[in-house]
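ARCHIVE CARD
CATEGORY: sequence design from structure
SOURCE FIELD: tokenized fold
FIELD CONTENT:
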């Protein structure tokens, strides 16, 4: 269907009552459930997805919510310059400059269907522009804003799976 390789879903990933927490240096911390996200503007875009492991999935069609639209609802503080995107597994987290994260899409669909859990559903972060495949956080559970760049685990964990 989509050309993305399938990987084992960690036991910690529970999608039944999924919700996205947006917290940290924000004026209005908030939790978004699927219905909240459905009320926000959705975008569709297509692009190839390539990975440092050497594979490419061509012409994927992603649909979701621009992260900047989510952040409009939580009032980031003026000192917010970075964010840490956490996966449901509790270990995987990727740091981003806030201005780069705002242009990313929280994908909820892939090729016109709800995003399968095996590919990061119910929500997967898809950074736009140049980046590394390990920045595409699967099973997004939280976005935490901060003034200083937080430490992350994404690159180390992802590249450890490739080697």
């Amino acid at each position: 269907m989509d050309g993305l390789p399938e990987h084992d879903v960690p036991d910690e990933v529970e999608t039944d009552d999924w919700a996205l927490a947006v917290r940290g240096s924000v004026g209005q911390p908030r939790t978004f459930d699927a219905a909240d996200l459905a009320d926000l503007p959705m975008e569709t875009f297509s692009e190839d997805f390539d990975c440092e492991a050497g594979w490419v999935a061509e012409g994927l069609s992603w649909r979701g919510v621009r992260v900047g639209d989510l952040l409009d609802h939580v009032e980031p503080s003026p000192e917010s310059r970075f964010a840490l995107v956490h996966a449901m597994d509790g270990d995987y987290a990727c740091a981003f400059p806030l201005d780069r994260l705002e242009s990313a899409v929280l994908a909820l669909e892939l090729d016109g269907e709800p995003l399968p859990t095996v590919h990061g559903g119910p929500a997967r972060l898809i950074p736009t522009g140049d980046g590394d495949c390990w920045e595409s956080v699967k099973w997004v559970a939280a976005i935490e804003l901060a003034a200083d760049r937080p430490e992350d685990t994404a690159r180390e964990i992802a590249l450890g799976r490739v080697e």
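CARD ANNOTATION: The CA atoms of residues 109 and 115 lie 4 Å apart. The mean pLDDT is 86.
SHELF: design records, drawer C
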